[in-house]
């Protein structure tokens, strides 16, 4: 168990995830039309920013920020050259930014952005950031005295999608790190932010005949923020985690789980919009009722859409995973609907792993 220290600043939830991308305007259109996000705010040349452009996208309580550098020397541009389009910032809403930053850095976190206060006609906005695995930043946001469009420098810019996909919240954000580094980052989250170990899966739980991984799930004291961390485990061939590390050029965010209260409708709409998902053999559903027990959704509909189901002592969950959302086999998304279960679909690990390996084989990377 990691040595855990209480974090004396209230974490209120995910504020946003910031993507560094090669073309934010086109990426905003992709996430709007394919995933049903509403464009709500913009920052760029027209609003006075001469160095970068950012688009804010929202759906339910989910907020994405898509940013691109306007010169090759900009840090965002250098990040995209190294990692491709990727999530570079996990931003958490906190009660007080200076306190959160001070506690984290005093406990060993490396500061990336010191506490910064920006004011405009809409109020006072504060932020700071520390370094997480790879080049990912963990950002603290304080917006209790700010009432403008996202942050100072942004202007309203509303473009609605053709339809919402019914996505509600960020359920969890999964990171991949190198062999031997998982426990380091588990201890880091426990010591600097007071996170607790929620679950641990080793190579006996997540493996096939070819490859394996280990994973530990960390969460904040209120259970609002869940950050699983994966590392490769020894196998006959290259694991999905090592493939990610190779193409991402180091550690980073592998996937984001987005919750819904109606996964059948959400996945139906996403597929209609063109989102591609991993598939599992039809045999997976032949004994699903025996493995999972009674569920509210018709199994034939789950089979038609490729949705997986799993149950633990708390209840059951339904989940499905997209294929990578860019040419590098790196970032992808999960759609999840929980019916009591706060697990991560342990009963589906083998089926999921095999589905990913089939895609790896197509890419010549297994």
UniProtKB/TrEMBL annotation:
CDD domains per record: HPPD_C_like, HPPD_N_like
One example GO MF annotation: 4-hydroxyphenylpyruvate dioxygenase activity
UniProt superkingdom: Bacteria
Domain VOC stretches: 13-143, 169-323
Positions annotated to bind Fe cation: 172, 255, 334
Lipid bilayer topology: Peripheral membrane protein
Keywords: Cytoplasm, Dioxygenase, Endoplasmic reticulum, Golgi apparatus, Iron, Membrane, Metal-binding, Oxidoreductase, Repeat
Location in or out of the cell: Cytoplasm; Endoplasmic reticulum membrane; Golgi apparatus membrane
UniProt key word Lyase: no
Keyword Membrane: yes
A Gene Ontology cellular-component term: cytoplasm
SUPFAM superfamilies assigned: Glyoxalase/Bleomycin resistance protein/Dihydroxybiphenyl dioxygenase
The record's free-text note on cofactor binding: Binds 1 Fe cation per subunit.
Family as reported in the entry's similarity comment: Belongs to the 4HPPD family.
Subunit structure: Homodimer.
Name the UniProt record assigns to this protein: 4-hydroxyphenylpyruvate dioxygenase
Species of the source: Lyngbya confervoides BDU141951
Gene that encodes it: hppD
């Amino acid at each position: 168990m990691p040595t855990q220290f209480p974090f004396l600043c209230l974490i209120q939830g995910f504020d946003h995830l910031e993507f560094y991308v090669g073309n934010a305007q086109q990426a905003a259109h992709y996430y709007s039309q394919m995933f049903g996000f509403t464009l709500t705010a913009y920052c760029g040349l027209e609003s006075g920013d001469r160095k970068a452009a950012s688009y804010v996208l929202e759906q339910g309580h989910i907020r994405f920020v898509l940013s691109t550098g306007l010169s090759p020397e900009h840090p965002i541009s250098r990040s995209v050259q190294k990692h491709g389009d990727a999530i570079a910032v996990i931003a958490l809403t906190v009660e007080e930014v200076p306190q959160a930053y001070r506690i984290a850095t005093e406990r060993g976190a490396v500061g990336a952005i010191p506490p910064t206060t920006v004011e405009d006609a809409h109020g006072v906005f504060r932020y700071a950031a520390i370094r997480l695995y790879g080049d990912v930043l963990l950002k603290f946001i304080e917006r209790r005295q700010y009432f403008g469009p996202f942050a100072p420098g942004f202007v309203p810019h509303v473009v609605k999608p053709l339809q919402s996909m019914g996505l509600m919240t960020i359920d969890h954000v999964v990171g991949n790190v190198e062999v031997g580094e998982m426990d380091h980052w588990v201890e880091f989250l426990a010591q600097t932010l007071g996170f607790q170990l929620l679950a641990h899966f080793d190579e006996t739980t997540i493996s096939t005949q070819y490859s394996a991984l280990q994973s530990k799930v960390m969460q904040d004291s209120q259970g609002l923020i869940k950050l699983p961390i994966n590392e490769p485990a020894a196998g006959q061939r290259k694991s999905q985690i090592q493939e990610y590390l190779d193409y991402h050029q180091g550690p980073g965010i592998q996937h984001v789980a987005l919750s819904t209260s109606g996964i059948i409708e959400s996945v139906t709409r996403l597929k209609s919009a063109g989102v591609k998902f991993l598939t599992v053999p039809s045999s997976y559903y032949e004994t699903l009722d025996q493995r999972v027990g009674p569920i509210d959704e018709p199994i034939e509909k789950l089979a038609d859409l490729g949705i997986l189901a799993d149950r633990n002592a708390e209840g059951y969950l339904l989940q499905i995973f997209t294929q990578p959302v860019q040419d590098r086999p790196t970032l992808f998304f999960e759609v999840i609907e929980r019916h009591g279960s706060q697990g991560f679909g342990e009963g589906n690990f083998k089926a999921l792993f095999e589905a990913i390996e089939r895609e790896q084989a197509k890419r010549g990377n297994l």
